[in-house]
Amino acid sequence: MLQISTDVRGDTLIVRLSGELDHHTAEMVRNQVEAELDRGLTEHLVLNLEDLSFMDSSGLGVILGRYKRVTQAGGRMALCSVNDQLKKLFELSGMLKILRIYPSETQALAETGVA
């Protein structure tokens, strides 16, 4: 079971994921994040993966898609609180070449200019 919570700080959308991001839950995450971005209130995106226990290639696809949308609109995107298992997945996928990972949500928000 995946839980999603969202928060807005300044012009940054914070998405906190808890549980498993896989082919069963990827579309739900995509739809909810897109709906928030469609509101036009935020420019940047921080994904907090502290409570994410599992992710497969479907999850990588969701993250990459949101990265493209945010950056094409001139925003920045950051990941934070990523466990070692997920960090390895990001490394193997090559996503760390384009996405920065921060130890905490506070540091990720500082990078987007909010905190």
TrEMBL record:
<dbReference type="InterPro" id="IPR002645">
    <property type="entry name" value="STAS_dom"/>
</dbReference>
<dbReference type="GO" id="GO:0043856">
    <property type="term" value="F:anti-sigma factor antagonist activity"/>
</dbReference>
<dbReference type="GO" id="GO:0030435">
    <property type="term" value="P:sporulation resulting in formation of a cellular spore"/>
</dbReference>
<dbReference type="Pfam" id="PF01740">
    <property type="entry name" value="STAS"/>
</dbReference>
<dbReference type="InterPro" id="IPR036513">
    <property type="entry name" value="STAS_dom_sf"/>
</dbReference>
<protein>
    <recommendedName>
        <fullName>Anti-sigma F factor antagonist</fullName>
    </recommendedName>
</protein>
<keyword id="KW-0749">Sporulation</keyword>
<dbReference type="InterPro" id="IPR003658">
    <property type="entry name" value="Anti-sigma_ant"/>
</dbReference>
<keyword id="KW-0597">Phosphoprotein</keyword>
<feature type="domain" description="STAS">
    <location>
        <begin position="2"/>
        <end position="112"/>
    </location>
</feature>
<comment type="function">
    <text>In the phosphorylated form it could act as an anti-anti-sigma factor that counteracts SpoIIAB and thus releases sigma f from inhibition.</text>
</comment>
<dbReference type="GO" id="GO:0045152">
    <property type="term" value="F:antisigma factor binding"/>
</dbReference>
<dbReference type="InterPro" id="IPR014237">
    <property type="entry name" value="Anti-sigma_F_ant"/>
</dbReference>
<comment type="similarity">
    <text>Belongs to the anti-sigma-factor antagonist family.</text>
</comment>
